[in-house]
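Supplementary notes for students who missed Thursday's class. We covered one full example, reproduced here. Read the sequence, then the structure, then the short commentary at the end.
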Amino acid sequence: MGKTPLESVAGLHVLITGAAQGMGLLFAKQACREGAARVVIWDIDTARLDAAAEELRRLGGTVEAYVVDLADPAQIHHYAAEAVESGGIDVLVNNAGVVTGTSFAKHRTAQITATMQVNALAPMYLTHALLPQLGRRGKGRVLTMASAAALVSNPNMSVYAASKAAALSFSDSLRLELEDNEQIAVSTICPTYISTGMFAGAKSMLLTPILEPEAVVDRAWRAMLAGTPLVLMPWTSKLGQLLRGVLPRPAWDFVAGKVIGVYHSMDEFTGRTPRDAQVNRG
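Structure (token representation):
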């Protein structure tokens, strides 16, 4: 069933995770510019969250900011219940994420756990908590930021790729479950590397530049409004999926490693500074 597109989020209540900086803040700015009735922003960094809230209020937004650690299910449920009680949520943007770019053997148990908690489990917990009331004003949206890493195996990204594959599978399965629900649409976005600092040091690939966050947010936002089920960015991701599907495994490994450069794109990864990496959990 086709979903009725939204022209904007004017008059709606929007919740965005990881909203103190980067794409989360860009999503929040867009919601404010479109006249959202209320923008609820979550992050783990108090100082940056406060600064983001002030910036959004200067844009005319009605903003509520909460320090939430998405690795803690109890906090997710507590603040989700608070968001529902104080007006409800119509649009959920599962944006927050963490990445550890190293070989699996070098991962610490805590890194594995945190990555899966923030990238995979938190969107499930939060969506589950908000879903019963999501379409009560007749317009409900869930936008989940997954990753192209969910679709293509890549050295030094094993846990991150697994977490985003889980997010993708969850989000698109939920979409199918809600196919007959006229009020709620679910969209999943799978971009390649984005120049937010989260993937600092990652290398661009053949015909696949590092994406600008503004372009990703714009495309994701339009997909959310339209109820578009899945977006792969850029177009080369679709080509990669086609080649991966038709080529024998040895041939695909050669193309991905030697031609496109996927398998070496994380060779020089550095990522955010320790403080910034922590911020992006929110």
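Commentary. The chain has one domain: 13-279. Residues 109-130 form the longest helix (22 residues). If anything here is unclear, bring it to office hours.
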